[in-house]
Amino acid sequence: MNExxxxxxxxxxxxxxxxxxxxxxxxxxxxTAPSNITVMNRQNADRLxxxxxxxxxxxxxxxxxxQDALRTADIILLSxxxxxxxxxxxxxxxxxxxxxxxVSVIAGLSIxxxxxxxxxxxxxxxxxxxxxxxxxxxxxxxxxxxAANESQRAFAIAMFEAVGLASVVEEPxxxxxxxxxxxxxxxxxxxxEAMIQAGVELxxxxxxxxxxxxxxxxxxxxxxxxxxxxPGELRRKVTSPNGTTQAAIETLDRYAFQEAMNKAxxxxxxxxxxxGDAIRSEAVGSPSx
Length: 289
Ligand SMILES: NC(=O)C1=CN([C@@H]2O[C@H](COP(=O)(O)OP(=O)(O)OC[C@H]3O[C@@H](n4cnc5c(N)ncnc54)[C@H](O)[C@@H]3O)[C@@H](O)[C@H]2O)C=CC1
Ligand SMILES: O=C(O)[C@@H]1CCC=N1
Hints:
Catalytic activity: L-proline + NAD(+) = (S)-1-pyrroline-5-carboxylate + NADH + 2 H(+); L-proline + NADP(+) = (S)-1-pyrroline-5-carboxylate + NADPH + 2 H(+)
Number of helices: 12
Order of helices and strands: EHEHEHEHEHEEHEHHHHHH
GO molecular function, one term: pyrroline-5-carboxylate reductase activity
CATH architecture of the largest domain: 3-Layer(aba) Sandwich
Bound molecules: 1,4-dihydronicotinamide adenine dinucleotide, (2S)-3,4-dihydro-2H-pyrrole-2-carboxylic acid
Strand content: 5-15%
Number of strands: 8
Shape: elongated
CATH class of the largest domain: Alpha Beta
Helix content: 55-70%
Radius of gyration: 21 Å
CATH superfamily of the largest domain: NAD(P)-binding Rossmann-like Domain
Protein name: Pyrroline-5-carboxylate reductase
Function: Catalyzes the reduction of 1-pyrroline-5-carboxylate (PCA) to L-proline.
Family: Belongs to the pyrroline-5-carboxylate reductase family.
CATH topology of the largest domain: Rossmann fold
Number of domains: 2
C-alpha cells in the first residue's frame, strides 16, 4: 500500500448503486484523488463514463484496462451482487499480489469463502455499509481477516469514516449489522411511506406530508444522537398519559409493530447467512457447517 493515504489506488470492482454511494462520499471527503480511483463493471461502459463525468474517476471499460487496474490497485472494493461474486473473485485470483487489500461490501459473503475462492489468505476487510453513505451519513460495520495489517485496517476504517460512522466488529456480527443498519434505511423508508400515506388520507398535501415526515425522522434520530437518551425514554416524553400518542402507540401494539420489526431484523440476518451459504457452496461445492 502507498505510504501516503491520499495516494492510495482504489479499484471499484462493480460500479452499481452501493459503489456510487461510497464513491460520492469518498470523493467529497478527498479521501484519495479521483484520478487514483478506477471503476469497472461487467459491460456497461456508458455507466462508467457517467461516473467519470460526475466524480472525475477513471473508467476501465476494456478487459485489458480492468486487468491493469486490478493488478495495480492497493485496495480492491468488491461491490458486485452476491450471486456474481464467486465468479468475479475467481477471475481475480491470477491478478492479485499478496499485499493488496480486498474490501467487500457483499451481503453474506464470508472472509473464509473469499479465501477459498482465491486459494490463499489475502488481506480482507468484510464490511456492511448502507446507502446513506451517499450523503456522508452512512453506518458501516467492518471486520478484518488476520492478514490485514495495521495500515490496511486504518485505511479501510478511514474509507468508511469518510462517508459516515464506522464500527469495527467481529465477523460473526456482520449479519447483525446487515439486519440493523445495512438494510435499515429500507425499514425507515417503509415507515415513512405509511406516515405520508396516512397524512394524505387525513387531508395534508403529499408535499407537506413528506416534508413533515422527513423532518420528524431526522429530528428524532438527531435527538437520540445529541441527547444520548434512549429511544424509549424519548418516546415516553412524547407520550402524555391518555393523550394522542398513547392512542397511536396502543394501536401499533395491537398490530404487534415492535414484534414485526424484531422478526424482520432477525430474518434479514438469517437471509444474509443463507446467501453466504449459497456463495460458499458455489465456491467449495458444499454448504458451510
Ligand atoms: N444497496 C444497498 O443498500 C447495499 C448493498 N450492499 C451490497 O453491495 C453489493 C452491490 O449492490 P448494488 O450496488 O445494490 O448492486 P448493483 O446491481 O447496483 O451493482 C452491481 C455492480 O457489479 C457489477 N458486476 C457484476 N459482476 C461483475 C463482474 N464479474 N465484474 C465486474 N463487475 C461486475 C455490475 O455490472 C454492477 O456495476 C451487493 O453485494 C450488496 O449485498 C451492501 C450494503 C447496502
Ligand atoms: O438487500 C440487500 O441484500 C442489500 C444488503 C444490505 C442492503 N441491501
